[in-house]
Amino acid sequence: MLVDIHCHANLYLNLDEIVADAKKAGVHKIISVGMSQTSLARVIEISENYDTIYPALGIHPEEVKMNKEIDQNLDKVIEFIRENSNKICAIGEIGLDHYFVKDRSLYPIQTKIFKKMLSLAQELTLPVNLHTKGAEKEIFELLSSYKLPEVNIHWYSGPDELLKLGIERGYYFSITPAISYSPPVKKVVELVDQKHLLLESDGPVKYSGQIGTPKMIKDVLAKIAAIKKIDIGVLESQIEKNTKKVFPRIF
Ligand SMILES: [Zn+2]
User: How many A from CA of 54 to the centre of ligand 1?
Assistant: First the structure.
């Protein structure tokens, strides 16, 4: 069974079709991650409407650009996540972004939100799904202060030495369809042991102009198998095992 562990399913206008196509491709579970303050209730709602969608809740590091009220609404957001804590499988998508967020005056509030989300994950004993773009060092430093069941780094593209540190610490790395063209993503696949890899679409993010969808992870699996020279079936069951380890609540 294939599991898309990171998708923004609430953003599709044709979700019926997306979910049906995913099933046809063997993708029987999809984790829909929260992003904005307004997305959280919608993520819970779609997970109640589709038996293959499982919710994760969190505030994306780019929310500080879009939502000027996020600071004052943070307690409300945390309350919402707590109230829904028995329905969710992870805290995510959370993290820091110093690449797409250029305005440095937003970094303190971004860090404040991230720390609150990490504390919440620790309190609720939930794994985290992390966005680390351009802030890998800061995130890896912060992570040592928290006790989290498991850490999933989504779409890693940072420096090699931090990738190696993440591997030493036993983090799990999820691979997107960017495996087709991105040298940093290929590097992750080469260096990370198959026991620490996961699959994700990050849909509807576009890949070479094409909207990303959960069914694409079937091809991601094939590409990983080719790079690592492993039988596809063997790799699929290994990744399913990894997924169970990180996100036990969706099984
Ligand atoms: Zn994402």
Answer: 15
> What is the tens place of the pLDDT at every residue in 70-112?
999 999 999 999 999 999 999 999 999 999 999 999 999 999 9
The whole-angstrom separation of Cα 204 and Cα 186 is 21
- The pTM score is 0.97
- How many angstroms does the Cα of residue 233 sit away from the middle of ligand 1? 27
Q: 7 C-alpha to center of ligand 1: Å? A: 6
Q: Could you give all domains of the chain from N- to C-terminal order, each with its CATH number?
A: 2-250 (3.20.20.140)
